[in-house]
Write a structure and sequence with these properties.
Oligomer: single chain
Helix content: 40-55%
Radius of gyration: 26 Å
Number of strands: 6
Number of helices: 17
Strand order of the largest sheet: 2-3-1-4-5-6
Low-confidence stretches: 51-61, 150-188, 240-247
Distance between the termini: 54 Å
Structural class: alpha/beta
Strand content: 5-15%
Shape: elongated
Length: 399
């Protein structure tokens, strides 16, 4: 049986990311697993779309599918499944524009700052959204939906629509009609406002699923993780050092020029997870793709086996890399690599040999980067992530 599109989105999120939406929808989540929480959230969100009186007239059920909800709120009856993400952003943009006039000057300035824009925010909400979209470009949807400012628009159903939806027999009971209409209209406004707020939550989650990518570099000290991050992502941490233990903490950096591409550098997942802050631990739990780096000079020991297994246990894509292969004698290389892969238990398709910072006399540029990038692209596509977030490979950067 096909999975409902909204449920399909929720199961791709991290469980903790769903909790604010669950609280808004009144869905119990304590002790509930991700799959069941996603199913219950999908049903609750779509049931809300029946808007009180509609629910009473037509019955509960599971409500319309998410595409029907977006068609109603956006006014675009031709909206297709491939346009869901864009439609959600349009609704969020409209909600912000309509609520702009009701924001205090300080709230406007804060929202303007969160959008990454300088200068004085405009008086018009429509102009504010236009300027934000022009400035942010393809990052607009992600940045807009991640703002912390709680902005919703109170939607209304026309009074004549309410009258048309009432059963004809009620026309002989005018006082009952009046009381029902007054109560229902208030309920409809509240439900409509709540529904728009839920769309904003859903849009935020969808943009995270599509745009936010966290690549975790894991490995024992001095395996070359910093050199790999510099070669693949153009980030020079200034920490490329042959001294063992030079990377002692979890280091999180956003890739310059990317919308939401982050690189995490950690010496391991064992002792580190127990010693880092809650914030760093949460980042580690949100890693989408792991790159586990082994030093060709040191080989695969018990610690490497345990840390690699910890990465695999997350059920996220994991690429095992043997770095510094330029230091291996050619006649020993194939035997060494096969032995390393066997000890790790790595699938052949998820195992590569590289030299991120080779000896200049052996190679003027890093070895094996193209294959690593191809693996990353395939892994992101399998996760329904946007691989264009990855920066292009560039010539060897200056140390």
């Amino acid at each position: 049986m096909a999975v409902e599109p909204l449920e399909r989105l929720f199961v791709r999120c991290h469980r903790d990311e769903l909790l604010p939406l669950a609280d808004l929808a009144g869905v119990a989540h304590r002790g509930v697993g991700l799959d069941l929480l996603a199913r219950n959230l999908s049903r609750a969100t779509r049931r809300l779309a029946r808007h009180g009186l509609l629910n009473a007239v037509f019955g509960g059920g599971e409500g319309p599918d998410w595409l029907a909800v977006l068609r109603e709120l956006s006014g675009d009856k031709q909206l297709g499944f491939g346009e869901i993400a864009d439609a959600e952003v349009v609704i969020v943009r409209k909600a912000h524009a309509e609520a702009w006039a009701r924001l205090t000057p300080d709230s406007r300035a804060e929202l303007w700052r969160q959008l990454g824009l300088g200068g004085q925010p405009p008086e018009s909400g429509v102009e504010a959204m236009q300027r934000a979209e022009s400035s942010l470009g393809r990052a607009f949807g992600y940045v807009l939906t991640q703002t912390r400012e709680s902005v919703t628009a109170a939607g209304r159903f026309p009074f004549v629509l309410l009258l048309a939806l009432l059963p004809m027999g009620w026309c002989f009971q005018p006082f009952i009609i009046l009381s029902v209409l007054l109560g229902a209209n208030k309920s409809l406004r509240a439900d409509r406002t709540r529904l728009v707020a839920m769309v904003m939550h859903v849009a935020r989650l969808r943009q995270i699923v599509l745009r936010r990518i966290t690549v975790g570099f894991v490995g024992s000290p001095s395996t070359g993780k910093d050199a790999g991050i510099r070669a693949l992502f153009g980030i020079d941490s200034g920490n490329i050092s042959p001294v063992a233990g030079s990377t002692r903490t979890v280091n999180i950096q956003q890739v310059p020029g990317a919308t939401a591409l982050y690189v995490v550098n950690t010496p391991g997942l064992g002792d580190v997870v127990q010693s880092v802050t809650d914030e760093a631990r949460q980042v580690l739990s949100h890693i989408d793709v792991y790159i586990y780096v082994v030093n060709a000079e040191g080989g695969v020991q018990a610690r490497e086996q345990a840390d690699y297994r910890a990465c695999r246990d997350t059920r996220k894509p994991v690429l095992a890399l043997v770095n510094k292969i330029d230091l291996l004698r050619p006649r020993d290389k194939d035997r060494y690599l096969e032995d390393a892969r066997h000890k790790l238990g790595a699938p052949a398709d998820d195992f590569l040999a590289v030299a991120f910072d080779p000896m200049p006399e052996l190679s003027p540029t890093p070895i094996g980067l193209e294959a690593v990038r191809e693996w990353l692209v395939a892994a992101l596509v399998s996760l329904d992530k946007d691989p264009t977030e990855l920066p292009p490979l560039t010539p060897r950067a200056s140390p």
